[in-house]
Amino acid sequence: MASGSYQCGQLSVDVASSSDSDLLGLDYQGRRLLLKPKISASGALYVAPGDDETSFWSKGERATFTVEGQAYPECLQAGALEMPFEATGNEPFWHARVEGKELLFNRPYETGEPETVQLETAVANRHGREFRGELDGQEVRLKVARQLCEDNMSGAQFPAQVRLELNGEVFQGCGGDPERLFRGAEWVVEDLAGTGIIDRSRMTVEFFDENRLAGMASCNRYGGQYERTAEGMTFDYMFATKMACAPALMNQEQRFLELMSDVKRANIGRQGELVLTTSKGEEIKAFQSTEK
Predict the structure, then answer these.
(1) What span, in angstroms and rounded, lies between the C-alpha atoms of 64 and 26?
(2) Cα–Cα distance for residue pair 85/160, rounded to 1 Å
(3) DSSP helix/strand/coil, 60
(4) Per the confidence metrics, is the pTM higher than 0.85?
(5) Helix or strand or coil: residue 180?
């Protein structure tokens, strides 16, 4: 039976079996779900009574979590890696793709087709993983630490720092799925281009599956699509509901939506905040909500 803590992108989920029944309890964002077991071809599957679109499926250190049809990023126990796990480094370029017990590897200084290396897991703990293999008689080690990593050429951010050791030579890089940095949290805006926000007003940003974006704009709810590229992040197809509020709120909302439409970059700041930067260098800063 599934139990323990998982990280589904930015969403923390605590899972525990009930002592007096076969139900599974999930705690997240101040909420508690009770799910009942359901037959699954592999792993352990639990669904909400009367709602098959709310479910939790786990196998080993990985799980999937869906609430009312909304799928969160793959849920991982501490130190675990999503599979496949990809990492790259620059100057010289190298690329590694771990899938199960195999490494597809473009080694530094060489171009061409990737080579296959059989891996064994040398270290597995809550901080990350270390893999070891052999390529043409040379030892290959890939060390992965679950810490924010910034590409030294593009500035793009990744959820893991990666260290490659090949025949005694050391190369640094970044790895993991950048989506995990943004999804799974409701981000609450605390500063709008250096002007703060109106007391007791609320602007939020939330990233969903299928590149959907939604939140509160001050008075109205809004939605749209986001696109993440090597150069940054942009928002498109923005729309909002049509409620009317006090003029000050409507002005703030208009300013927020204008800035959002001009966002060109998304980063995680030093305090864990979301920083959205426009083409003019203006910033929207938001922190993870502590309530739902």
Answers:
(1) 12
(2) 10
(3) coil
(4) yes
(5) helix
In angstroms, the CA 134 to CA 150 distance is: 28
Burial classification of residue 95, based on how many CB atoms lie within 10 Å of its CB (0-12 exposed, 13-18 middle, 19 or more buried)? middle
Residue-wise burial string across 249-281, b where 16 or more C-beta atoms lie within 10 A, e elsewhere: bbebbebbbebbeebbbbbbeeeebbebbbeee
For residue 194, what are its two tokens? 């250096």
How far, CA to CA in Å, does 143 sit from each of 93, 146, 171, 227, 264?
Answer: 17, 10, 11, 30, 32
Distances (CA, A) of 125 to 78, 79, 80, 122, 129: 7, 6, 8, 10, 7
Closest CA to 186 of 259, 286, 103: 286
- The per-residue pLDDT for range 49-74, each reduced to its tens digit, is 999 999 999 999 999 999 999 999 99
Helices (H), the chain: 179-182, 247-261
Q: What is the pLDDT of residues 255-280, one digit of tens each?
A: 999 999 999 999 999 999 999 999 99
Distance from C-alpha of 48 to C-alpha of 37, rounded to nearest angstrom: 9
For 249, the 3-state DSSP assignment is helix
Separation CA 181–CA 164 (nearest Å): 23
The band of 178, judged by pLDDT with boundaries at 50, 70 and 90, is: very high
